[in-house]
Specification:
Elements: E1 4-5, E2 8-9, H1 22-33, H2 41-49, H3 52-65, H4 74-93, H5 99-121, H6 130-135
Antiparallel strand pairs: 1-2
Helix pairs in contact: 2-4, 3-5, 4-5
Length: about 150
């Protein structure tokens, strides 16, 4: 059976797209051959951050999650934010579109979700800080091993 990829047979032995990075090279070659498919970086960035699947997740998670981020270790928050920005920039570079939302959620979603959970669990405690959570996680009673819902 003669299986062809482009003008070559898949079994020619030159590796074709079987080599590591072959798919990435094929995508770059495709962008070079068809300039109409090329987008500027900023247009691709705009497409990534205005994609509806991105805002289905982050439209509610960002506004509610930022309120309790100060309770988490600063290196965690900084690392998650920087890595999320880097993922969005790489998505814009490769014109990934809606895929960026999934990658960004994998990076910063758990931290924002925990922040939202703290906001929902303790909505009226404005003076909450890290020391309060470590010293007295229940905020009621003397038994620190059990959780008492507010």
């Amino acid at each position: 059976m003669d299986c062809r990829v482009g003008n070559r047979r898949a079994s020619d032995g030159d590796g074709g797209s079987r080599r590591p990075g072959g798919a990435a090279q094929a995508a770059l070659d495709d962008r070079r051959r068809r300039p109409e498919r090329r987008l500027t970086f900023f247009v691709a960035l705009w497409h990534c951050v205005t994609e509806r699947s991105f805002w289905y997740v982050f439209g509610w998670l960002i506004p509610l999650g930022v309120w309790r981020l100060k309770l988490f270790p600063t290196p965690w928050v900084r690392a998650a934010i920087v890595t999320s920005i880097f993922a969005i920039l790489l998505g814009a570079y490769s014109n990934a579109g809606g895929t960026v939302g999934r990658a960004t959620f994998n990076i910063i979603g758990p931290l924002l979700s925990l922040s939202v959970a703290l906001l929902i669990a303790r909505p009226f405690e404005h003076s909450l800080n890290k020391a309060d959570l470590v010293a007295n996680p229940t905020r009621r009673g003397s038994d620190k091993s059990t959780f008492h819902a507010s």
